[in-house]
Fold this sequence. Notes:
Blueprint: H1 2-38, H2 43-49, H3 53-62, H4 67-83, H5 86-94, H6 109-115, H7 119-127, H8 142-148, H9 152-160, H10 175-182, H11 185-193, H12 208-214, H13 218-226
Amino acid sequence: MTQLIAMQITTLQAIFIVLMVLSLVIVLFGHFASKRSNERPDDLVGAAGRGDLARVKELLAADANSDANRSDGGIALIMAAENGDLEVAEALLAGGVDVNFKFSDGRTALMSACQEGHSTLVQALLAKGAEVNAQASNGGAALILASGKGNLEAVRALLAKGADVNIKEGDGATALFLACQYGYLEVVRLLVAEGADVNAKANDGESALEAATRRKHTDVKAFLLEKGAKRWQ
Length: 233
């Protein structure tokens, strides 16, 4: 009987110790989680992503000189560009964020604004010195992205800032190729007027004329032929 009681006491002591250890772990986890929450390097990114202009300005003012702010500021700027949030983008740039910051895939805010069709933001970024011919790791460039979206205003702004009209992405496609593929005749007209090569081919050998023909963009096809595009063999 005495032995049984002793075993029960030992078991209770073991359970008590385990509970104490678990409690300590929970307290420590909560402490570090709270600390990480307050110091999250993506706090600025989150504020920019939800369009919280006041919070963005607050964070920039509080942490203006930190390395984290510079890197997160660049990511935040790309998010603002994707969202077309001009006010947040301007606040970030005024706070010293690099307009030419590149994400891990080489993407810039200018590319993101072009991809999403935000021409006003494109112009604002260009005015702040965005590199017009920067390319992502896949070769994507602002002019190619804007042309592929049919954003005539952005294409015009990019060309005015010296965009390479014949720049190619990784698969060899040019701005003209994408504009023809998606049937954006006015963009095609502008690119050709600015010197786009109507006979340039992608890496697979397809030309802008073939792309327009494949997608049945007869108006684009007729224009290309008028401008000297060669029919394929």
